[in-house]
Amino acid sequence: MLPTIEFFILIILLSALSGILGALTGLGGATILVPIYTLYLGIPIVYASGASLISTIATSSGTASAYIKDRITNLKIGTGLLTATTTGSIIGSLTVAFIYSHHLQYIIYIVFGAVLLSQIYVQLQRSKFELPRGVEPDWTTRIFQLYGKYYDMVLDREVEYIGVKWWLGEIIMFFAGYISGLLGIGSGALKVLAMDWAMNLPIKVS
């Protein structure tokens, strides 16, 4: 076991490296950080998941504030999806407590591996088009007012968009929250499915 100061410095360096790799690959830093904590440093996965979840919240909050400042974030859609995500994360954290109380930790490893593979697959299959094409409004668009617009500095124009299949987005975001609470990661693959694929939102908005 490393001395406390050296261990702390190593944690900082590995966390920074995971954040960089996570941003470059689109998998998220926590997805890379948890295996390093458990396999390399020997930290129990329950502690590794908790620590990575805190870093995920901090990173996401910082990134989200920048998008809000640029008026890209749709707060109405985000708040609606947040309800499902929060509910799922609470149930996920309760599931973790049950798993560890019954010494079923292997389930966590199996689920984590499956989620990691799904994250890689979704990133590879992600749409090449930044803006959805040919999206027709449905009943959820009208009832929940899933309309929005933002100024895209790259395209140098104002982009108008609509969201569809609100109910499907809520279901997927619930499971995204559940996975986050269970594993302590961002579960970006499911969020991509919910907002990019199910609700047909632009990548920057999602």
UniProtKB/TrEMBL annotation:
> What sections of the protein cross the membrane?
7-40, 80-100, 106-124, 167-190
Q: Name one Pfam family in it.
A: TauE
In the bilayer, the protein is annotated as: Multi-pass membrane protein
Q: Mainly localized where?
A: membrane
Q: Taxonomically, which superkingdom?
A: Archaea
Compartment annotation: Cell membrane
Q: Which InterPro entries does this chain map to?
A: TM_pro_TauE-like (IPR002781), TSUP (IPR052017)
PANTHER family cross-referenced by the UniProt entry: MEMBRANE TRANSPORTER PROTEIN, TRANSMEMBRANE PROTEIN YFCA
Identify this protein by name.
Probable membrane transporter protein
Species of origin: Candidatus Aramenus sulfurataquae
